[in-house]
């Protein structure tokens, strides 16, 4: 942990409000993945330029919402709205949590493959090509069916369910872990071997390698219902929205910080590169965030100016 190690993380884990937490500190939750950590530290370092004291609080994706509703946490700069439980819509409805706006990240989940597979399966990236060239993705233990690497078993069965619903000639094989999945991708690309895998973005992988995505039918009303899909009407996977949240009193308590929160954005390419620096090159989250700030002054300077104007 860094010098901003939380004084209330343990309390949060039991759903308690921390005693002795200072009212003038802006407390930012830190979740369990690198991309969110980077957004948190970039936002925090920019808030420090406005002379705010910032505290980073380790908090789970669902428990953080109760803490924000209670006012124990204040500003979440990168919030993914999938798998968040019941408290989120309830807290929004009564105004305990406020959506500031989209962060700018374009989240994506789905099946990826190396571009060289399009020579062996010319109908790609359309998912219906998979019916005709499953054998191009086959392995010795799945032939004549194609081999699809899915998320680890404890991450759910979404890919397996979709294969069954669409009667695709593929055999889903659960990845052992994120690390094991990445190792298999690396090996396949190095040997130009068949590969189809469930994955997500933003991720450092896309800063180092080129992958294409299987494309699906357009979802009805722009929202993919994963539970009811058939061939010819298959939207694939629902995509999360990535936004920024504050607690009820944030704008009134820190109008300049709220203006910064409104202006703050992040794009996939920038975050992918920083995740690569942290996860693969050994850089700390703090240093990667500071590096982004040092290299992108023209981007964040208007944010600081807008924040200072709101303070006047």
TrEMBL record:
<dbReference type="GO" id="GO:0043190">
    <property type="term" value="C:ATP-binding cassette (ABC) transporter complex"/>
</dbReference>
<feature type="signal peptide">
    <location>
        <begin position="1"/>
        <end position="23"/>
    </location>
</feature>
<dbReference type="Pfam" id="PF04069">
    <property type="entry name" value="OpuAC"/>
</dbReference>
<feature type="domain" description="ABC-type glycine betaine transport system substrate-binding">
    <location>
        <begin position="25"/>
        <end position="295"/>
    </location>
</feature>
<dbReference type="GO" id="GO:0022857">
    <property type="term" value="F:transmembrane transporter activity"/>
</dbReference>
<keyword id="KW-0732">Signal</keyword>
<dbReference type="InterPro" id="IPR007210">
    <property type="entry name" value="ABC_Gly_betaine_transp_sub-bd"/>
</dbReference>
<protein>
    <submittedName>
        <fullName>Glycine betaine/proline transport system substrate-binding protein</fullName>
    </submittedName>
</protein>
């Amino acid at each position: 942990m860094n010098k901003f190690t939380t004084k209330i993380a343990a309390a949060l884990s039991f759903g308690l409000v921390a005693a002795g937490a200072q009212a003038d500190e802006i407390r930012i939750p830190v979740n369990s993945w690198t991309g969110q950590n980077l957004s948190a530290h970039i936002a925090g370092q920019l808030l420090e330029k406005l002379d705010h004291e910032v505290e980073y609080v380790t908090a789970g994706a669902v428990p953080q919402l109760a803490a924000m509703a209670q006012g124990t946490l204040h500003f979440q700069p990168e919030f993914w709205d999938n798998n968040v439980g019941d408290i989120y819509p309830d807290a929004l409805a009564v105004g305990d949590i406020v959506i500031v706006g989209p962060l700018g990240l374009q989240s994506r989940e789905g099946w990826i493959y190396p571009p060289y597979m399009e020579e062996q399966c010319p109908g790609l990236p359309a998912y219906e090509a998979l019916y005709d060239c499953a054998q191009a993705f086959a392995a010795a233990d799945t032939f004549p069916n194609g081999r699809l690497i899915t998320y680890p078993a404890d991450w759910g069965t979404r890919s397996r369910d979709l294969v069954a619903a669409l009667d695709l000639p593929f055999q889903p094989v659960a990845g052992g872990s994120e690390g094991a999945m990445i190792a298999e991708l690396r090996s396949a690309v190095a040997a130009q071997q068949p590969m189809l895998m469930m994955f997500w973005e933003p991720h450092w992988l896309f800063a180092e390698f080129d992958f294409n995505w299987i494309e699906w039918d357009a979802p009805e009303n722009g929202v993919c219902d994963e539970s009811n899909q058939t061939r010819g009407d298959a939207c694939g996977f629902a995509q999360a929205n990535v936004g920024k949240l504050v607690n009820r009193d944030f704008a009134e308590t820190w109008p300049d910080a709220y203006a910064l929160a409104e202006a703050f954005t992040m794009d996939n390419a920038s975050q992918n590169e920083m995740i690569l620096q942290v996860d693969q090159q050994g850089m700390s989250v703090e240093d990667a965030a500071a590096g982004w700030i040092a290299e992108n002054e023209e981007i964040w300077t208007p944010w600081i100016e807008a924040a200072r104007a709101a303070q006047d």
